[in-house]
Specification:
Structural class: alpha+beta
Shape: globular
Strand content: 15-25%
Number of strands: 10
Number of helices: 9
Radius of gyration: 18 Å
Oligomer: single chain
Order of helices and strands: HHEEEHEHHEEEHEHEHHE
Length: 282
């Protein structure tokens, strides 16, 4: 890894991302590093190294080029899913929705790009996410989608969702969208309930923001969140990780908010299906 004063560190293809994260933390470096290209292997290696994958598009030599910009936050918001706080409004509104996993990855990803723009969700990065989702049965890092559905006359309508990734006993929320007022809050609350029921130990929410802290997240400095993620990532045999890789059934969001209730059977209806089956609108 090359570090020059006044510029982002350059992680080279032969470098170990995990070691680079430790070195950047020890040196007090800023949040971003450069990597010369984006492909599925590089994105997976960065995620295993505890970076969050981001991209940057630049004009170089007269043409547009996407660069990898892995982010190692100075402070990361982590949450034990069992401690997810559910507001009275989210609990009431949850009766209108159902939650699923991996039924509409392409729809969720395109909705996230439409919502947030392509400043960091650059083309090479979204293609890498899509490839990693298709390959999730054989990758250590499983890129997944979470969908919230409203029951409309024409059938289930996706109204909120997110793209994230599962590693060992941890799950990271990477980017999300909402198309209906209040639906995003319900999606997060229901996801927290799902992760708790699956036994996920650490929910990585990324940059600390007010709504994440209100959800129950803790803003931790680098030296603490890196250690917590290290421990959670080692739990490769977690059954919750396998469930997050599957294509789930539709489950009423309200059923996920009762901490004492077991996971509804409908969630695991298609749990053996790990194929690249595209979007599953029913």
């Amino acid at each position: 890894m090359l570090q020059e004063e006044g510029s982002y560190p350059l992680i080279e293809p032969s470098d170990d991302f995990h070691d680079c994260a430790d070195r950047l933390a020890a040196s007090g470096a800023d949040e971003f590093a450069f990597f010369p290209f984006i492909d599925p292997d590089a994105v997976e290696r960065a995620a295993l190294g505890r970076f969050m994958p981001m991209g940057l598009s630049l004009e170089l030599d007269g043409r547009r080029r996407d660069l990898f910009l892995p982010k190692l936050h100075l402070e990361r918001c982590l949450l034990d899913p069992r401690d997810t706080r559910v507001t009275a409004t989210a609990r009431r509104e949850s009766r209108r929705y159902s939650l699923s996993v991996n039924r509409a990855f392409g729809t969720v990803l395109s909705s996230c790009v439409a919502t947030h723009g392509a400043d960091w969700l650059v083309g090479d990065l979204t293609r890498a996410f899509t490839a990693l989702h298709a390959q999730r049965s054989r990758r250590r890092v499983a890129f997944v989608s979470v969908e919230l559905w409203a029951a409309d006359e024409g059938g289930p309508d996706p109204v909120a969702g997110e793209i994230g990734y599962a590693v060992g006993g941890a799950y990271a929320s990477l980017t999300g969208y909402t198309a209906r007022s209040g639906a995003g809050t319900v999606q997060l609350a229901a996801l927290g309930g799902l992760l708790a029921k699956l036994g996920v130990r650490v929910w990585d929410l990324g940059m600390a923001m007010d709504y994440k802290l209100a959800l129950g997240g803790r803003a931790l400095p680098r030296e603490l969140f890196l250690t917590e993620l290290d421990g959670a990532y080692r739990d490769d045999g977690e059954p919750g990780n396998a469930a997050l890789r599957a294509v789930s059934g539709f489950v009423p969001a309200r059923a996920l908010l009762d901490a004492s209730a077991p996971l509804p059977e409908g969630f695991l209806a298609d749990s053996t299906n790990l194929a690249d089956t595209g979007d599953h609108h029913e």
